[in-house]
From TrEMBL:
<dbReference type="InterPro" id="IPR035903">
    <property type="entry name" value="HesB-like_dom_sf"/>
</dbReference>
<feature type="domain" description="Core">
    <location>
        <begin position="2"/>
        <end position="86"/>
    </location>
</feature>
<dbReference type="Pfam" id="PF01521">
    <property type="entry name" value="Fe-S_biosyn"/>
</dbReference>
<dbReference type="InterPro" id="IPR000361">
    <property type="entry name" value="ATAP_core_dom"/>
</dbReference>
<protein>
    <submittedName>
        <fullName>Heme biosynthesis protein HemY</fullName>
    </submittedName>
</protein>
Length: 109
């Protein structure tokens, strides 16, 4: 369901080095003109969550979201954590068709 690569686990271990390890939630975040995207946040277990243990870490996801997106892989890139899902995130990839989206230089976007 949720798998973190060795690189992601290493980065999380460094983040929590001098802190208590807390559960990490996979959730939908606003993706701007590209629509929603999967993201990570520190959170606590809630009713209706699925949880996955990997090493010292607990990953949480709302059951309904898990059913929609399928298996999730958490990895690292030079820009930070990346999340890939087995199935497309609902509403993702819309885009405004503007190469400078979010800069205020294309049709008021």
């Amino acid at each position: 369901m949720i798998t973190a690569t060795d690189a992601a686990i290493k980065s999380l271990s460094m983040h929590f080095k001098d802190k208590d390890i807390q559960p990490i939630r996979v959730h939908l975040a606003d993706g701007g003109c590209s629509g929603p995207r999967l993201s990570l946040a520190i959170d606590e277990l809630r009713d209706g969550d699925k949880s996955v243990e990997q090493g010292d870490f607990t990953f949480l996801i709302q059951s309904e979201l898990a059913e929609v997106v399928g298996a999730i892989t958490i990895d690292m890139s030079e820009y930070g954590f990346t999340l890939a899902s087995e199935r497309e995130v609902p509403g993702a990839g819309g885009g405004c068709g503007c190469s400078s989206c979010g800069t205020g230089t294309c049709g008021g976007h």
